[in-house]
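Example record

The entry below shows one chain as it appears in the dataset: sequence first, then structure tokens.
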Amino acid sequence: MEQRPVLALESTIISHGMPYPENLEFARQAEQECYQHGAVPATIAILDGLVHVGLDGAMLEKLARGKGVEKVSTRDLGLVLSRRKSGATTVSATMRLANLAGIKVFATGGIGGVHRGVNETGDISLDLKELGETPVVVVSAGAKAILDLPRTLEYLETMGVPVLGYETDEFPAFYSRKSGLPLPWRVNSPHEVAAVYREQSNLRLHTGILVANPVPQKHEIPAEELNPVIEQALSECDGQGIHGKDVTPYLLSKIVDLTAGRSLKTNVQLALNNIRLGARIANEISSFQR
């Protein structure tokens, strides 16, 4: 039987990260990029109480329209499944389900993390806890720029999660290539990432590996340009009393409005860039295991 490398893809970016129909176009393009770079795409979601690892066209359409689709983290899995609901998986839930399915690499846009104002809210994404517990390679453009990036990196260090800068010595900030935060480890090829994964597996270390892959330079929005936009979006979010799982979708949507759609184009390009790298890493890990 043919053994082809598989790349996990999340579904929240489809249902809660982009407007329709751009989200459906992205989902189709994401899967096509996967195939073109030698991996089988496995978009993960829950539909009518069943976990699906890999979706057909009708399933992608249902997610993209978003009607009745919950945003599902690891915490929500049992509830959504037991109530036979439909849900799009966040980074944490996608990691958990990918690991259960034997998938070793997952590409996303940006991970969640420690939210700004955490001293008052205590808001820390489950993505970080999952990275500390689930041995999956996660390729992302760093963490979402709306977050407290220094504290996010500190939390990852506390959880024992290696953060590998891909062709960079600095933690990327989602829309921007630079955050001013240095990284201790740099890798320059998918082979190097696969080698780290192999050694962690040999040692039975049960943490994920975060590969921080900066957005391509021609698509980035420099931090000095974006930071005032983020501050305005955060201020409006606070003013409307939005909290919990609704914060990130609101902020990303508001930033799209404030940048006249430019941030959405950047979001699409950084996610596709991560998929291309994720497929190459999946191929390298697969070659180690043949």
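Notes for this example: The CA atoms of residues 175 and 284 lie 27 Å apart. The first helix runs from residue 12 to 15.
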